[in-house]
Amino acid sequence: MQTPGSQSSLHRANLERVVRAVRLAGSLTQAEIARATGLSAATVSNIVRELKEAGTVEVTDTSAGGRRARSVSLSGDAGIVIGVDFGHTHLRVAVGNLAHQVLAEESEPLDVDASWVDGFDRAEALVGRLVRGIGVGREKVIGVGLGVPGPIDVESGTLGSTAILPGWAGINPRQELSQRLGVPVYVDNDANLGALGELVWGSGRGVKDLAYIKVASGVGAGLVINGQIYRGPGGTAGEIGHITLDESGPVCRCGNRGCLETFAAARYVLPLLQGSHGPELTMERVVELAREGDPGCRRVIADVGRHVGSGVASLCNLLNPSRVVLGGSLAEAGELVLAPIRESVGRYAIPSAARQLSVLTGSLGGRAEVLGALALVLSEMGDSTLLAENSSGVRAPAVMSSVR
Questions:
Q1: pLDDT tens for each residue of 23-72
Q2: Do the Cβ atoms of 123 and 181 come closer than 8 Å?
Q3: Most CB contacts within 10 A, which of 50, 242, 264, 302?
Q4: DSSP readout, 267-294?
């Protein structure tokens, strides 16, 4: 037993500080660890050596500022983490090791609105197939990150909107998947996970305040404030799709009129073009045709961009983020949609907020949410759980360092 204030408890606290710094950054040189933790270079060197001998970290030669350095990352062979992303039309699962290498990844079509039982049956089967495929036993699974396309009630853990996922009302997705897989499950909505994915590995790297806007079957936002996902006390922060643009506009699935979603989401936008382009038209095809010069598709995408820009302008005025990252199928349109967004931001946002804002597309594409689910597992794991004491010292599983 460690006594508070004793040498052993202080040593334990320093171990956790080093592990936490590496866990959050992915990999750091020893000098960077010292700066991040406030520990002396000698203390960091001793701790890194101890963690390396215990198999907790891996140390590789690198360079920093033109000088030789040692890069420290948490061990990649101590276990695996799993990301599960439910979209409205797909299921995607990824398996990663603790050096943040994606070992297996697969997606398949899924009508998530149809049946939550079928959705979890499919997810359980796909997880099992991928884990078996990489030759790793289930006992190596440390945890699962789960993304769902709807708001999670913070207190109950249930999906809180019958309008967004009517077939899932009252379901506790974390509890359901945890019972099936027998490991801890961490759950969040897909927009938050997209924000986390882009923040850690994509277009949000190096930024502490950003909004990830996902435009697909619906419209949602993941908000990052001071480097942390902001969920709000009830877990519904970021529902930008239900900002009212026109009180006399179309009736939204939420029951209100003229929500941003009714002017931007695929389910409302596609009917505008299906008369001239056929009933099988998808948003991906609209983007493809627009990039090829189709005038109707270009006009629709520009209109969507201006509407999304109005919502982004409201975010700018309220939260003053430094970056907005656009995700979802619409992001593939590139400047065809980014330029109208910037135009609306310039028109409706406070000038000082607009000047500080950069608007760009995500760099992870459709993988943002599932990679965010992997990161969620590691961000939610306490540092004490990464350090399992034994008689010879410290041994810990590790955390991801670079996406492949």
A1: 777 788 999 999 999 999 999 999 999 998 888 888 988 877 778 888 89
A2: no
A3: 264
A4: HHHTHHHHHHH-TT--HHHHHHHHHTT-
pTM of the model: 0.84
Cα–Cα distance, 61 to 372 (Å, whole number): 28
What value, to the nearest 5°, has the Cα angle with vertex 184 and ends 4 and 229?
A: 80
Q: What does the alpha-carbon distance between residue 308 and residue 313 come to, in Å, rounded to a whole number?
A: 9
**Token pair of 108, please?**
């398949």
CA atoms of 282 and 269, how far apart (whole Å): 10
Q: How many CB atoms lie within 10 A of CB 212?
A: 35
Closest to 302 (Cα-Cα) out of 276, 328, 264 = 264
Cα 360 to Cα 98: distance, rounded to the nearest angstrom: 29
Q: With CA atoms as reference, report the closest residue to 189 among 233, 157, 155.
A: 157
Residues written for the chain:
404
Residue 91 contacts residue 112 (beta carbons within 8 Å): yes
- The token duo for 344 is 């609306």
| Cα gap 249→260, rounded to integer Å | 10
Phi and psi at residue 130, to the nearest 5°: -70, -40
Q: What is the DSSP letter of 367?
A: G
Distance between CA 121 and CA 112 in Å, rounded?
12
Nearest in space to 222 (alpha carbons), one of 309, 365, 232: 232
Averaged pLDDT, 75-97: 87
pLDDT, tens digit, 9 for 90 and up, residues 213-248? 999 888 999 999 998 899 988 888 999 999 999 999
| Tokens found for residue 274 | 């299906």
For the CA atoms of the chain, what is the radius of gyration? Answer: 23
